[in-house]
Design a protein that fits this description.
By secondary structure, the chain is mostly helical. Helices cover about 80% and strands about 0% of the residues. It contains seven helices and no strands. It has helices at about 10-45, 55-70, 75-100, 105-130, 135-155, 160-185, 195-220. Helix 1 crosses helix 3, helix 3 (about 75-100) crosses helix 4 (about 105-130) and helix 5 runs antiparallel to helix 6 (about 160-185). The radius of gyration is 19 Å and the shape is globular.
Length: about 220
């Protein structure tokens, strides 16, 4: 019998590869979140204006497409930092707007703390339980598309109640996406740590914005 065909050692090898992807993902995610926080801080410090909805959408999807194309090369790392840095710059003016209102600093810190607690709690649950949440993929894809179109409608038609409902929907969807992507990492459904980082970053970014909107609204200052 050829020992190369026995299958012995495949499972440990697979586990090591999975653990490496998970480790690289969270390391890159930490660095991109820090870089995004720096660019957001620069935007707040210099009171940079928001680039506008159109430029934000074009910039995000353009850099997302570039990152996807470069995901298997070293340039993919540069692209993911460009993407997260750009998103940090777009976040800065929003944070500045909240900081300019009464108790704005408390609203921002509460949203930030809530985002961290949700992300860490859901990630820890998925990692500890090792449950497979791949069944959520189709639902999340449709839900995110509906929520995205709904958010555009809320902006154009200026309907505050509908906008709040969309923010609540995004909180649930981004929480589900965190569970889904973490499960994909654990079970080998996602083997590229750059794209896994992007998915988790987008979840955290949208979760923070949605919580910021909801907390600001219910505090009476939004």
């Amino acid at each position: 019998m050829n020992p190369l065909n026995t299958g012995i050692g495949r499972a440990p090898s697979s586990v090591l590869a999975t653990n490496k992807v998970i480790r690289n993902t969270y390391m890159l995610l930490s660095m991109t979140l820090l870089f995004s926080a720096v660019t957001a801080g620069v935007s707040v410090a210099f009171k940079l204006p928001h680039p506008g909805l159109l430029l934000t959408i074009v910039g995000f999807f353009g850099l997302l497409f570039l990152t996807h194309k470069l995901q298997n090369s070293v340039w993919g790392l540069a692209s993911v930092f460009a993407l997260t840095g750009f998103m940090g710059l777009t976040l800065g003016p929003i944070i500045s707007a909240y900081l300019s209102i009464p108790n704005g600093d408390q609203i921002v810190m509460t949203a930030l703390g809530g985002t961290g607690a949700i992300f860490l709690g859901l990630s820890a649950y998925a990692l500890a339980s090792r449950k497979d949440f791949s069944f959520m993929g189709g639902f999340l894809m449709v839900g995110i598309l509906v929520a995205f179109l709904g958010s555009l409608a809320a902006i154009f038609f200026n309907i505050p109640a509908f906008s709040l409902a969309i923010s609540g929907m995004f909180v649930l969807l981004m929480s589900g996406l965190i569970l889904y992507e973490t499960s994909q990492l654990i079970h080998g459904g996602e083997t590229n740590y750059i794209m896994a980082t992007v998915s988790l970053y987008v979840s955290i970014y949208n979760l923070f914005l949605s919580l910021l909107h909801l907390i600001g609204a219910f505090s009476g200052d939004d």
